[in-house]
């Protein structure tokens, strides 16, 4: 398969130069080559998006904009199986998860298509009389920079609200996972999105990313990725006062109180951290279990983990596919190599199940202490650390000492405790007796080093606008 940039509604596959090879992480075979964008292509993409913003998209009637976004959602659904198969080939995501995620992308377009006509300003009774009202106006050209772990849904989380609010978009997919993003370009063109409104520039994060972040015509960077790159974007974007939203890393807790439904909490704990082979910013990778139920919980957690199906991601029964790349598996293994055998205990996993593909069996680690690297840093692979706790107040202090604050789960049958915990844990997203972090209709994002701004819900759409106040004198 040959892929290339998508500019002004045209794919540009054969551009000469050395293409980037994409490797299927389950088979280690090359399955596609991608012609990446050079800086002059990015300049062309930005200029095209600026023209499209000024000449077509900004002034299109809201009803027409909504119609096009609905048409994109319909087209995604029609091509759901094809897109899911491509995602599985590209990043080794289990096919059943890939199907869900493509469906989620379609729902995001539907939600924001519906939002176009329900997004409005205020009239304000100002002290001096007259008539005062606010307008929500698009920013102009915005750039979306996305990671490889949930390529399609995160792309849709950014592109759909930005378009719905009247912006044009430059999309930079992660270099490991450009396939479904480029297909979205084709889909949008088929659905009637005018030329230049969505431009897609695959290629190196460093050169393209730096270029976009510093470009004066780009009004906002909406980024999802590592905290390290998020910090760099904020520094570099300061010179042009970029509007910025950053969805970054996490080290999320899964807290089990003794009064919880232990069976349910333990049965769901493995996929709360190992789903997507642990390559999930919301992975509940630190488990805190109240001392009284620690042994019984760990026994059940271990039993459920051993039943997980780690296998060929094209099989619908597979729950864990490979890691995305050789380098990613090695980075995860490094965390395990750094363990201290006199203190840490690996209850299962951490080994490679076969000789082909970047697979790794999920690992449960006990004996962690507060200063341990594996306890504090985002592993981004199938590894979980488990500890016990006795006191609720100390537990909250330990959780809040983390520099991250993205997500988390609290298991308890005591409503007062649930509310107390929900208010005291410093995290952008929390679930009580559940691990669900993402809802299309609700804001998603992090506290502290987990980010700034929110994706999803109407909050995200506001983030793609400026707020204008207009005053009319009645004198
Ligand atoms: P990454 O930061 O390496 O890359 C993310 C994107 O940024 C890619 O498109 C990459 O090409 C680009 N990039 C790289 N260098 C850049 C630069 N100098 N300027 C601008 N862009 C640049 O992250 P990744 O490895 O693709 O993804 C994993 C990380 O993403 C994890 O830390 C994970 O927690 C985080 N993540 C966060 C969320 C969230 O919503 N909070 C969701 C998914 C993933």
CATH topology of the largest domain: Aldehyde Dehydrogenase, Chain A, domain 1
> What is the first-to-last residue Cα distance?
67 Å
Q: Mind describing the biggest β-sheet?
A: 7 strands, mixed
Cα gyration radius (Å): 23 Å
- Counted by DSSP, the helix tally is 15
The percent range for helix content is 25-40%
Describe the protein in words.
- With 475 residues, the protein is an alpha/beta fold.
- It has 2 domains: 2-248 and 450-472, Aldehyde Dehydrogenase, Chain A, domain 1 (3-Layer(aba) Sandwich), CATH 3.40.605; 253-439, 3-Layer(aba) Sandwich (Aldehyde Dehydrogenase, Chain A, domain 2), CATH 3.40.309.10.
- The chain has 15 helices and 23 strands.
- It has helices spanning 39-55, 62-78, 80-91, 95-115, 151-164, 179-190, 205-214, 227-237, 262-274, 294-306, 326-337, 373-376, 392-400, 415-424, 457-462, and strands spanning 2-3, 5-7, 10-12, 20-24, 29-34, 123-124, 131-138, 141-145, 168-172, 198-200, 218-224, 243-247, 253-256, 286-290, 345-348, 363-366, 383-389, 404-405, 409-411, 431-432, 447-448, 451-452, 465-472.
- The strands form 6 sheets. The protein has a 7-stranded mixed sheet with strand order 15-16-17-14-13-19-20, with helices on both faces.
- α6 links the parallel β9 and β10.
- α2 (62-78) runs antiparallel to α4, α2 packs across α6 (179-190) and α4 packs parallel to α5 (151-164).
- The protein is globular.
- The N and C termini lie far apart (67 Å).
- 50% of the residues are buried.
- The mean pLDDT is 97.
- Bound molecules: nicotinamide-adenine-dinucleotide.
- Nicotinamide-adenine-dinucleotide binds at residues 145-150, 172, 174-175, 205-206, 209-210, 213, 224-226, 229, 232-233, 247-250, 281, 378, 380, 406, 446, 451.
């Amino acid at each position: 398969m040959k892929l290339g940039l998508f500019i002004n509604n045209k794919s540009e596959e054969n551009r000469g130069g050395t293409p980037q090879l994409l490797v299927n992480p389950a088979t280690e075979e090359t399955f596609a080559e991608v012609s990446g964008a050079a800086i002059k292509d990015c300049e062309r993409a930005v200029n095209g998006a600026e023209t499209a913003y000024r000449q077509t998209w900004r002034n299109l009637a809201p009803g027409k904009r909504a119609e096009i976004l609905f048409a994109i959602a319909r087209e995604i659904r029609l091509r759901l199986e094809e897109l899911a198969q491509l995602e599985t080939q590209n990043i080794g995501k289990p096919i059943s998860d890939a199907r869900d995620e493509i469906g989620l992308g379609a729902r995001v377009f539907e939600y924001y298509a519906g939002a176009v006509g329900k997004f409005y300003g205020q009239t304000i009774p100002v002290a001096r009389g007259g008539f005062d009202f606010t307008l929500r106006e698009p920013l102009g050209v915005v750039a979306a920079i996305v990671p490889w772990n949930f390529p399609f849904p995160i792309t849709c989380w950014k592109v759909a609200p930005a378009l719905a609010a009247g912006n044009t978009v430059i999309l930079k997919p992660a270099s490991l996972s450009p396939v479904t993003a480029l297909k979205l370009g084709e889909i949008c063109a088929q659905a009637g999105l005018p030329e230049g409104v969505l431009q897609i520039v695959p290629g190196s994060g460093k050169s393209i990313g730096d270029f976009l972040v510093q470009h004066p015509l780009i009004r906002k960077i909406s980024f999802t990725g590592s905290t390290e790159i998020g910090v760099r974007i904020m520094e570099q974007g300061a010179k042009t006062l970029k509007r910025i939203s950053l969805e970054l890393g996490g080290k999320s807790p899964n807290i089990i109180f003794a009064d919880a439904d232990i069976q349910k909490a333990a049965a769901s704990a493995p996929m709360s951290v190992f789903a997507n082979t642990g390559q999930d910013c919301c992975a509940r990778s630190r488990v805190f279990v109240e001392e009284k139920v620690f042994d019984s919980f760990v026994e059940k957690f271990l039993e459920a983990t051993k039943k997980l199906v780690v296998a060929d991601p094209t099989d619908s029964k597979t729950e864990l596919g490979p890691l995305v790349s050789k380098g990613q598996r090695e980075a995860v293994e490094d965390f395990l190599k750094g363990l201290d055998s006199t203190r840490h205990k690996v209850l299962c996993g951490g080994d490679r199940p076969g000789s082909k593909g970047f697979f790794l069996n999920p690992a449960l680690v006990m004996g962690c202490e507060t200063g341990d690297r594996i306890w504090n840093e985002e592993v981004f692979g199938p590894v979980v650390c488990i500890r016990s706790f006795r006191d609720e107040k100390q537990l909250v202090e330990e959780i809040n000492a983390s520099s991250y604050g993205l997500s988390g789960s609290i298991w308890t049958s005591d409503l007062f405790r649930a509310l107390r915990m929900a208010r005291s844990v410093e995290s952008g997203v929390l679930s009580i007796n559940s691990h669900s972090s993402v809802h299309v209709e609700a804001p998603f994002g992090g506290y502290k080093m987990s980010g700034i701004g929110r994706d999803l819900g109407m909050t995200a759409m506001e983030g793609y606008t400026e707020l204008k106040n207009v005053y009319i004198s009645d004198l």
